[in-house]
Structures are given as structure tokens and as C-alpha cells.
Amino acid sequence: MIAVALCALLLAPAVWMFRRTEELLRRERMAAELARAQAERALYLAQVQSVRAVLNAPKTGSASQLKMGPQAADRPRNLWAAVSVNHAVFKQGQTKDLSVEFTLVNDGAKVIDPKIAESRILINGAELSVSGSILSQGLKDAQVKALSPGANLQFGVVLGDHFTAPGTYRVSWKGTGFQSPETVIRVLPEKAR
After folding, report:
1. Phi, psi of 76 (to 5 degrees)
2. CA 6, CA 8: separation in Å to the nearest integer?
3. Residue 61 needs a FRET pair 20 to 30 A away by CA distance; which of 6, 125, 163, 178 works?
């Protein structure tokens, strides 16, 4: 009987600790579920506000038509652009396969002419003189002239001939109503110094 009482006394703190740990874990799970529910609610409210803003925006014609003229050029274009490369680092003499991918997304509510042929490739802040012909090659798709809301345009071009000398190159893409962030390409010398 005394042995049972001693065992009970010795196990009581362990049982108390176990129950306390379970209670703390349960509270943490509840807090995580509450945080998740609040995040989902905030996302839902943001989506509702976004839809309301689009629905309450002034109507200026059909979304399926391109709005041309001086007023269209003054409005924000709602285009998102990005430039990426197949590799960030090349050895000198091995840049012939350097490929640059151009991406454009219409975040607006209207069809937009992105004017790809008028856009420019910038290398270290300087405009590449043959940008128009480089960007126009291979683009025969209707999206080139009319990018629908929510649509994206992606195309790649091999530009290794423009990165032959060792150095760091900052490449971006600029057009009417958009400019991509810079992406960095590094060309290492053929022989290490």
C-alpha cells in the first residue's frame, strides 16, 4: 500500500506536466487556427474590395476594344513586366546560348496594345539599338497587338552576342506603360586571374 502511494506521489508531477503540455499545445493549435481564419478573412475582404473597385470604376467603352488616342496614352497602362535569363553566370566565349525571356502581364481591366515593337532592351542603362527587331522576331500572335485583361505574353530571345566581354550586365525591358526590374548577368573571364 505504501509502495502504491509512493508511486502515485512520484507520478503526480509527471502527469501534471503531461496535462499542462497538452493544454499548451491545444492553445497553440487554436491560436494558429484563429490566425489562419483571420488571414483568410482578410484575403476575402481584399478580393471583395478589389471586385467592388472594378465594378464601380467609370465605364469608358467596351473592354473588348482598344482605346486609342492621346487620352489612352496618358492613363496608367497596368502592365507588369519581367526579364529573366537561363543562367546568371557564363564564362567568356560560352555566351552563345544565353537566352533572355521577356514576360508581360495585363493587370488592368481593359485590352491593351503593349506595343512590343516600340519597346526597348536596356543593358547597363543603355538602349540596345536593335531592340525593336529583336523583340518583334517570332511574335506573330494576336496577343502582341491586343493583350486581354489577366493575360500574359512570354517569349524568349537568344542574345549571347551582346554579352561577349567579361563583366556584370544589368538587363531590363522598357515599353509604353511598363518597365521591368533589372536582372543581372555575369560573364567571367575565360581564365581566372
Report:
1. -65, 140
2. 5
3. 178
Q: How far apart are CA 101 and CA 86, in angstroms?
A: 8
Indicate if the alpha-carbon torsion angle 68, 72, 78, 83 is positive or negative: positive
Residue 114, classified by CB atoms within 10 Å of its CB into exposed (0-12), middle (13-18) or buried (19+), is buried
Cα separation of 167 and 152, whole Å?
Answer: 32
Mean pLDDT for the stretch of residues 145-156? 86
Q: Are 92 and 163 in contact (CB under 8 A)?
A: no
Read off the pLDDT of residues 56-68 as tens digits, 9 standing for 90 and up: 665 444 443 334 4
DSSP E strands, 15-151? 79-85, 89-91, 99-106, 120-123, 126-127
The answer to whether the pTM exceeds 0.90 is: no
Q: How far apart are CA 53 and CA 138, in angstroms?
A: 37
Q: What is the pLDDT of residue 54?
A: 65
Q: How confident is the model at residue 75 (pLDDT cuts 50, 70, 90)?
A: very low
Task: Give the integer Cα–Cα distance in Å for 145 and 157.
Answer: 19
